[in-house]
Amino acid sequence: MTAIENEKNLFTMCWFGFYQPYATSIVHVTKHIISPNEIDEKDLIFIWDKYMKSDLLMDLLKNPVPWSPALLEGYKREWIKKKDGLFVPNLIKDIKGKCLGAVLLLSRISEDKLQPLINDYKNRGYFLKETSILIGDLVREIRAFLP
Description:
Elements: H1 3-7, E1 11-15, E2 25-29, E3 44-47, H2 54-61, E4 67-81, E5 87-105, H3 111-123, E6 127-135, E7 138-146
Parallel strand pairs: 3-7
Antiparallel strand pairs: 1-2, 3-5, 4-5, 4-6, 6-7
């Protein structure tokens, strides 16, 4: 990728709240501008595993999705060694636990394009449930993939 091509893929920010410091930013690729009116709790979903890598998420969804770092409290990631020697994360309930992840802004993606992500988590025993997520310095009740 040349420097000029790379410049076209730089990240930009969109504020999630209206007043500082009570706001956080949504990270997105510049060609996908986000209106503050698009950002609503029903349009956010928390992920916490391999799909935090943008290339894996893009391969699965076939569409760029704006995201922001986020924190889930009351759960922790536990690494489990599989038969092939690879380690995979498992999310377990833990009162003192914290799990860093990301929230995805779903207003730009159709339900059918989101289905592969939902199916992958479901096949591993995780389902969409409402929970409190810390996004920047804002706490939001949103859906997350939980055991």
